[in-house]
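#onboarding

Welcome to the new folks! Below is a worked example of what a typical request in this channel looks like: someone posts a single protein sequence, and someone else replies with the predicted structure as tokens. Don't worry about understanding the tokens yet, we'll cover that in week two.

Example request:
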Amino acid sequence: TVFNDRHFSCENCDGCVSGGFDSATSQIVLCQNNIRHQSHMNRVVAHELIHAFDHCRAHVDWFKNVKHLACSEIRAANLSGDCTLMNEIARFKFGLKGHHQTCVRDRAIRSILAVRKVSKETAEKAVDEVFDACFNDLEPFGRIPHSKTDAKRAYRDFQNRDRYNANL
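Example response:
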């Protein structure tokens, strides 16, 4: 069960970080001084909830295994809306073929570098080694929610996931 006053914290943060997941307290931190719009906050919350999901599901070793961190960052960038076409256009980044994957890779590397003191080469290597498996892991949604409609469909699919097996 998620409790707003227990699992979410609004704080002032250094630099341009928008949020984070504190695995020690299972708390999502929202950087109130760096979030200016509701849509940005929605993406930050979705991104950090993916980390929380991974923490519960996969027992991620956040501090000792950079591949674990890379996988969760790939999943969060892929599933949170960080790399939607509109967000990329707002960042003045344009591309057609494979652009979503490039965005996910780049944002995962940036996130690793923002939270761990590792070289860019180490972050790139970790992301590259786990990219395919983690990019294709769409849990808990089962699809990349590109829009609110997709997100609603994903939630409906999640609610009905056991319906087929229950009839066997």
